[in-house]
Give the backbone structure.
Amino acid sequence: MILLTMIIQILLLTAFFWAAGTIGLGLLAGKRKAKLIAKQHCFAIIVCAHNEENVIENLLHSLADQTYDKAYYHVFLLADHCNDATASLGKKFSNVTVWERNSGARTGKGAVLHWGIELIRDKTGNKYDSYIVFDADNRATPNFVEEINKSFCSGAKLVMGNRKSLNPYSSIISSWYTIYWQTVDCLYCRPRSNLGLAAIISGTGFAFQADLLGPEGWDTTSITEDIEFSMGQNLKGVFAVYWEKAVFYDEQPTNLATMLSQVRRWCTGNFQIAAKYRKIWWKHFCAQPNLKLIDNFIPIFLAVMFGFYLILNFCWLFYNAAKDVNPFGLIDIIWWSFLYILSIGVSYAVIKYSSFDLKKLQPAILTSGIYCIIFSLIAVYSLFKPVKSWQPIEHGKTK
């Protein structure tokens, strides 16, 4: 057990120094300056929705109020097996086309995107050269589409927007999520984008140019279609760019049960992708070694290894306690104290940088280490007991 713990510790430290190095170098490097090529891209904005009558109007109003030329974007609301007012609410908006999908089984967002993009291509031909994907519980800032257009004019082909929490103070859970997404944006997406590494595509608020799709259209099979799409593009040499000025707001879960379900889905999807692409990835990497490709697996690797490390440490503590040996050594206390203080320090830094109220998020900042522990343990659990199917998250009525 000691040997295994040491091996995992070495692997964790290696991944940690890699992550810390990219953060430090990326923040020091600053944003890459690119020459803008003036062009108005034509956007198809896709919204996948299942029974979202509580929130859908907020998003559609925000998309109707964009500063971008209305002639150059259109919203397609894909109402998937809805039995509420989602579709009828969408039809109230002149800039929205509603398509209802009622046949077959509900198999997740990837299937809806495949169906919807095929319809858009069939009915509009090559009219739209770019796509933006939103979830029904999002709200876009007025210049979102305009900023995405600027990102494409700078040479990007796959872009992640700046995700902000819509309900940061609703509960300790939503506050944890707020900190999590701020950390992803500030310490993952921004520095990696500065270095030319891939920013993470996180399910919603992202955009891509139509020529990234092959004849088959949207072609993903995992329950984390966003990460799978991103991985497929990475293997083609296309890496996501983070665009900070393209701000949108996203409603966060407020209870533990929803959080556990969502994190399990994320972790399961990542493992599905790792299993599906490992041979393709290895063949591609051997043919053309690239540090950008190694970086793809760092987030998955860190979460799982930290989870295993936690479990082994718990086992070691119980083993020593059963033998009447003091389970807490000085080095162990220093090490775990360092990790917990580090989580608090990181959380404080990213919230201090943001526009959120530091005092209101203080309880979540002080307990942010608990979120990291839960996430890592779920990652290990999902490795052995994966989610069988995609499950939607219910959204309450928001103003």
Observations:
- The beta strands are 43-49, 73-80, 96-101, 130-135, 138-140, 158-165, 206-209, 241-250.
- The mean pLDDT is 86.
- The chain has 13 helices and eight strands.
